[in-house]
């Protein structure tokens, strides 16, 4: 079996963490006799510098022609003063909408070996945490009507939160399906006490729930969910929410694990096509120093093996290799604590590769 992977190294630490991930995937291909064909393409700041466009058409076309997209990170100070539609972040939004990646999965897992990194009090940390945030990714305020106008109160600006029945239905179905493979508990997060879009959202989730009688569904307003995540993260299994709320809650959930350098993500579309990227940014301040943590990108590749290629055993081999490296005491600077063995980006990549 051959798998075509479009690789976008991007900016900052992106190229370094991608290099290590490709080594891991190459090891998987040897061990399990799979053929991965990598095509490197540019997006983000790198593409602005080269082509004057954060998402050149050739990049989007190459991604569409692949089975999966693996992305490092985009952005950096260098491009910070560019207008909104020319910034590196446009590449991400353009890839999400251009590839119709409406389902964003952001697992936030507290690994036993890294329990001490959790900023919560020890009872909450000891209980463990394994949450899957399912965030809608191509609708809502991010893509709704927006504009500016003059008013009596001075210049005004607006962004519109709008969701259609079908947009909510398809993401809800994904969330219920994922809950089925986990602890079968789904919390829907909205703001139905105030927002009309949330009231429709909730009604659709309730409709979809009729086909999943074995899933325990509950609803939470987003402000309460933000609080509950800090109070008792263990209560959550799968959390379903909108693009805007998911942006905020997934950052909160990731910080609770104490190691943002560890967390992967998947953005999925209609058929198997998906884009996989670490949830951390491009960290230009540490780029090129061989100190970035490659684990989030390596775990993103594991999600790619599972969700786009259906290679569960291979995905597990990658995750097990990461866990073994942690249990053996290897740590990059961001997750280092006393008594552990500090390693750089390349060394961490080498150790994980050898563990496979
Ligand atoms: C994320 C990021 C993006 C978002 C930005 C960079 C456009 O914060 O992936 O969560 O807001 O979706
Ligand atoms: Mg975000």
Give a short overview.
This protein is α/β, with parallel strands linked by helices and 356 residues long. It is built from 12 helices and 14 strands.
Structural notes for this entry:
This protein has 356 residues and is α/β, with parallel strands linked by helices. It folds into two domains: 1-101 and 269-356, 3-Layer(aba) Sandwich (Isopropylmalate Dehydrogenase), CATH 3.40.718; 119-256, Isopropylmalate Dehydrogenase. Helix content is 40%, strand content 22%. It contains twelve helices and 14 strands. It has a ten-stranded mixed β-sheet with strand order 2-1-3-12-11-4-5-10-8-9, sandwiched between helices. Strands 6-7 form a two-stranded antiparallel sheet. It has a two-stranded parallel ribbon with strand order 13-14. Helix 1 (14-32) crosses helix 10 (295-307), helix 1 (14-32) runs parallel beside helix 12 (345-354) and helix 6 (165-180) crosses helix 7. The two termini are 20 Å apart. Bound molecules: 3-isopropylmalic acid and magnesium ion. Magnesium ion (MG) binds at residues 247, 251. 3-isopropylmalic acid binds at residues 89, 92-93, 247.
Based on the model shown, name its key terms:
356 residues; Isopropylmalate Dehydrogenase; alpha/beta; 40% helix; 12 helices; globular; binds magnesium ion; single chain
Q: Tell me the span between the first and last alpha carbons.
A: 20 Å
- Tell me the domain tally: 2
Order of helices and strands: EHEHHEHEHEEEHEHEHEHEEHHEEH
What's the CATH H-level superfamily name of the largest domain?
A: Isopropylmalate Dehydrogenase
Helix content: 25-40%
Strand order of the largest sheet: 2-1-3-12-11-4-5-10-8-9
| Count of alpha/pi helices | 12
| C-alpha-based Rg, rounded | 20 Å
Report the count of strand segments: 14
Shape summary: globular
What can be said about the biggest beta sheet?
A: 10 strands, mixed
- The assigned structural class equals alpha/beta
CATH class (first level) name of the largest domain: Alpha Beta
**Name given to the CATH architecture of the largest domain:** 3-Layer(aba) Sandwich
The quaternary state of the protein chains shown equals single chain
Under CATH, the topology of the largest domain can be stated as Isopropylmalate Dehydrogenase
Q: What proportion strand?
A: 15-25%
The average pLDDT is: 96
